[in-house]
Batch of 2 targets.
Target 1
Amino acid sequence: MNRLNQLFASKKDNLLSIYYTAGYPALNTTVAIAEALEKAGADFLEIGFPYSDPVADGPTIQHSSEQALINGMTLNQLFEELTELRKRVTIPILLMGYFNPIVQYGIERFCKKAGELGVDGVIVPDLPMYEYEELYSSYFIDNNLSNIFLVTPQTSPERIRKIDELSNSFIYLLSSSSITGGSLQLTANIEDYYKRIKGMELKNPAIIGFGISDNATFTKACQYANGAIVGSKFVKLLSEEGYMEKIPGFIKSIKQ
Amino acid sequence: MKYGVNDHGYYGDFGGAYIPEMLYPNVEELRQQYLTIINDEGFKAEFNDLLKNYVGRPSPLYHAKRYSEKYGANIFFKREDLNHTGSHKINNAIGQILLAKRLGKKRIIAETGAGQHGVATATVCALMGIECVVYMGEIDMARQAPNVSRMKMLGATVRPASSGSKTLKDATNEALRDWIANPVDTHYIIGSVVGPYPYPDMVARFQSIISEETKKQLVEHTGKELPEYVLACVGGGSNAMGMFYHFLDDEQVKLVAIEAAGKGVDSGHSAATTFLGHEGVLHGSRTILMQTPDGQVVEPYSISAGLDYPGIGPQHAHLYKINRAQYVSVTDDEAMQAGLLCSQMEGIIPAIESSHALAQLEKMKFKSSDNVVICLSGRGDKDLDTFIKYFNY
């Protein structure tokens, strides 16, 4: 049981997760932002590590990644910043990023380091299920890290079953096939998709992400899943002056 | 084939399909269907008909007599420069548009660097009456303005990629983002032997016509179907893979792939991927790519926009690692001189990409009985401005 499992065991709905890019807007802010988000009421967090070619991301997160790289963010720097993580933050933490920086760091070494620092899970959008299962899953499991898989409206029921089987904390439901930073449009098709997933009675909780930006979209998403993730909208807040002071109000505006 | 792809899309350690879930249904659909479609007799008939009557194939295998004299061997040029649209890129574009039609796709997207693949894609979309959107780095659009105009005249929409370094890799990222947002009706025509499986294998098969013809033509010229050497330039590596394909299992044939060294391998301005790169993941496949120690992709440099790519196709990475092909590099200056030499000795103005392959001849020692085939992957019309500026004509 890691912190994610404990969270999902104790709280079943309206879970709010926040994504932000490490190193944006500046280095050495990662833990302070996490601490502020916990205090403001976020249930768990996704900390992105930047990559030069983020194909699944829209302009907002692309920009934050570029700026973080300019600022000097690397996996080494991030792990350095996370040394203090578990002295200051108790909610579950996931790291999110693309596979190539992990390959260069060393996949086993990455999992070991993340586990040691108290990270609970990893989201790597471009690490395929086959490679994960055949080659790398033991590194994750040995270090008590949950690997989170994405599901889109186009993912087949058989594949969703397989994902459910390989998952051990939650499944990340994309609100549509899109890059990050879009807006949630609750068309009849999307509602059918959520209902279809709900009807499958998966063993893992489901959290909806992509396009969640305010109380209305958060509330809608929570009707169909255990919670939702806000990313681009929060990253935008980080570009504003005095963003630390604005964090409590931001979380309140989503949760209300 | 000994050097072919396995069931999971790997060539030894390289390949695979490292894509986000949003792209999985598209790529999986292709994986399940591409072999059935391209091996279908009706498909083959249509493909071969278009290659013959629209592209102008077979492209000649030209015995370059003055070059042969100069280099002391029998030098042959495989004339992909004579294809419709001016390069080998059209072979793949024709194959993929026919495939897209059979998959029921209504819209085509593509990435382009120099614009050759964009033009080829815009051409086949015009031919088939299908909507076409080409992504091109903002910087490349400025560098290759005539090709932007050609694509527009052919009816394509050219969208600037303004993220990252604003060149080919960013155009590829934008095309992938478009495909994520349009998962049902759109086919992505990737222009090289890169990307997630099955693209590297599929593109190699469509380009393999180059070596298939060469074998037959060599018999006519030399009485033998195997040469001693086969040379081709490598950016992503599609003309080289087409040129090598049917020679891979003939181990006695020496395969030489020429990368762009730019201003020199150690100058910090280079695209010599096997010299400067490390194993990693780029655009959906495990391969060799130029990157920082932290795994960020490095922007390559070459005077030739078509070789200006930070990775190589996964099959090339495999052939390099197991030493089935030799990977060498040629600088901007060497390539430009070779382009001039070919123009003035053979009356052929080659693309700067192909000039890299020609420049390698200067560095090799041949026996007079050696037969050497060089893939002249494209014509130099698009590069006239660059040649003129370089030589101050």
Note: The interface with chain B takes residues 51-56, 58-59, 62, 66, 69, 74-76, 98-105, 125-128, 130-131, 149-152, 154-156, 159, 174, 177-179 of chain A (CB under 8 Å).
Target 2
Amino acid sequence: MPVLELKNIVKNYPDGENINEVLKDISFQVKKGEFAAIMGPSGAGKSTLLTIMGALLSPSSGTVLLNNQDISHFSKKQQTQLRLNEIGFIFQNSDLIPYLKISEQLQFIQKISNKKSTDAIAILKQLGLGHRLSSYPNALSGGEKQRVAIARAFINQPDLILADEPTASLDSKRGREVVQIIQETVHQQNKAAVMVTHDERILDLVDSIWQIEDGKLNKVNK
Amino acid sequence: MYLTLRELRHNKWKFSALGLIIFLIVFLVLFITGLANGLANDSGSAIKETPAETFILQKGSQARLNRSKLTDPDWQKFQNKYHNDVTKLSVAQMTIQKQNNASKKTDIAYFVINKDSFLAPKSVKKTDGNQVYVSRKLESDGYKVGDSFKDSNSGKTFKIAGFTNTESYSHSPVIYLNNQQAQNILPDSKSFNAIALKKNLTKRSGYQVISKQTLINNIPGYSAEQSSLYLMIGFLYLISLFVLAVFFYIINLQKISDFGTLKALGTKTGYLVGHVLTEMGLLSVSGILVSFLVTYLIKLKMPASMPFSLSLTTLLGTGLLFLGIALLSALLSLIKVVKVDPINAIGGNN
């Protein structure tokens, strides 16, 4: 059974008098323990697709099933709750909160969530951040920041991990390291993960590859 | 609270600067309020602190004591009706001087009263001959108990029997005289200025009946001072509303992308609104408390020539009003926080 399944997703935006169809009849699925990559040129609808998967945006039509539950018509409040407890986000620029220490970045998520908390310090140590626990984000390198973001995404034990171009602000060596960490964690913890990227050098690390172009999504044979 | 305390800790200097601004504004408001109250007391405390509620003046005297002249037949009418709740009052603004020093003159106000009446301060006791009780304000002009002074106009000499509180009238210290003493000084001792009444009365045909506050408002200079000071205070509130709103807005505008990320991670909007309000509330409360302290210290050090008076009620009231103003200022920022779309976190837009 897939963790996340998209059926016939369409997303329209009004564009002056016309309607701009960003996503055209998209179907997609990702299973437990699977690390999927979505490739595509900029403007192809990658980000829009990710915001729909992440319950940040509702589709114009179609069904989004997360753990077999239809979330496509959730209210804003339900979406917020869902993002907190069921989805882990890794953003392009890591987007850590500047005034929280590294350990607090994770503890805050645990604080606002009603899920049983795991050991945040242990996760950070596992990712090689043991010496950075009481640093602020501005003291960290880009790679370290992205590792904190990964730890933050996994802290709440979500079933689905969504990564938005996690290598965009890193050099190729660090970028590869970061994706490797995501891959290992996904496989170890048996989570489903979707990564939007245009970095072809890391495609050997993922389990399945999808190509999006002009709003249409196709699976690419690996 | 979790986010608030950590953000305050991390951005100590930025928030200290904002707290300093709040402190300075609240302090200025408190200081001017204290001066306004001090001047009000200096202007009318000799009237304000009596238990009288109503004053009866001659018709057409425009609520001014010195324009009113009543005579014995008037007094009889009121005394027959109100007995011990009425008493006569005459006020004369004159000049006194030290007995042997004609160049050192002091402006004073004579209050001609019956020492047993409710207009007399508690410390005024029965005196004989030329002994009088005077306001403690005269102390700053170098007068002591037992000193003698001369009424500059009539040349009559009096001896200070004791001090009352700092009663004053139109910024002059008050000297309490009885009828007999007044006869030697005032040209027309048969008439008097007003009848003070301990009860509430609004109308009596043939007379001008006014409340105590109306009488105080018409003491020369009182309204002009008070209205300009309160205009300043009013503008200070208005200015601080806008200044704080702009500061809060800018500070929160810098954090918009953080708010977007926090929302994307699943933080409720209500939590963020609480965060912003707590932050602004904590800053305001600390600014207000420090200004309370500084105002208190200043009050201890103010010279007698700068009358300053601030009651605890006024102090707390001002503090509360200001806290309200500060939270109102945060409103604009809150709208912005509510409107942040978590979608901004995706696509590296920020």
Note: The domain at 2-220 of chain A is CATH 3.40.50.300 (Rossmann fold).
